[in-house]
Amino acid sequence: MSKGLNEFLEIFFIGILMGSADILPGISGGTIALITGIYERLINGISNIHFSFIKYLLKRNFKEFKIKMAEEIDFELFIPLILGIGLAFFFLSNIITYLIYIYPAYIYSFFLGLIFASTYILYKKLKEINIKIIGLTIISAILTYFFIGLNPINANHSLITIFFSGLIAVCAMILPGISGSMILVLLGQYNYILNSLSSLNIVEIIVFMFGAIIGILGFSNILRYLIKHYENIIMALLIGVMLGTLRKPIIIITNSINNSIFYGVLFTIIGILLIIILEKKH
Prior knowledge:
mainly alpha; 14 helices; 0% strand
């Protein structure tokens, strides 16, 4: 296969992993992007979109429109990535929902392995480890631990609520360590949005996606600035967040593992090995 096709398929597969991760409360698609080596390119690509090419389209200057759009949008990244994420969202949501219902201990054991291994990968990316970094990690882990234990908000499912849920959740989704799905759970929207995806409720999906697009375009610029100027601090905070989110899978595994401890451990090991393989390739 050509280099271009190989890159397309690789990013497409990463998109599937990111979409699958974002469906489940517990792990962030941003974590997958970071481990697989496309995170910086993703954040830079999103923040580079300013829609200045629109004015040329309105002026019917199609030549300049194509040039400016190609300058702003990294199509080689976004096309396969969005296709992969979309495939995971629309075709795997039913499967993952079914697996969570039938085999919750195994699914969350797998994600426990993913989160645990991802934490180690982020740890290796720290440029410096000192008392300040350790302290920030511990504080972040404690705050996240209690945040995960909050009761979901009993919110309505109006289009306005769905819009803001998309806006807030997507900001979490692109942060390594913070699960956008967990944010939706706490907002009381997770099951409703998942059912909308499964039943292809077009209006609610469009409203949710519109909120997500606005959120990701605005937040990506802030995130790029923070990572550029405070990378070590941000990484320390994210490691703490990931450690804190372990509360969710551990509780579910403990309550539903029964006598299948062997398979729980096996799926945890599979999750760890998957992250190691992905990280080794990059």
